[in-house]
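note to self — DONT lose this again. spent like an hour looking for the file last time. sequence + predicted structure for the chain T wanted, 137 res
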Amino acid sequence: MYIFAGMKNSQARITSIVQFFDRLPEEERIIVDVLRQIVLENLPPGFKERLSFNVPSFYGKGGICIIWPAAIPRGGVKQGVLLGFWQGNKLNDEDDYLTHGTNKRIFYKIYKTPEEIDEKAIVKLLKEAIRIDRLRR
């Protein structure tokens, strides 16, 4: 017999941003909050945020970026918070800011402290990602 009463199920579907933030340790919560604000402040009208894979994802015609903290399973993030760009392989990342991991399309940056966040670099990449998204059919 299996008893799950009182156990917090980390695999359960997250249905609101409040529920999402409740699952995060304080350090990750701060990093996510800063990244989320940067993205939201720079998205044009008509672009949306929604929870996909239990994490905040941002969309225009297609995916723009995703914020995945280590506390949320199945993201492959061991520590910190990942900011990933869905079309990272198409971005003109002239500052070589993003990491090109094993995924051919999604390029990312992992932040372990809020101080590592470079708003200027993120905004530059977001603008490029939005430009690429607008070229989609």
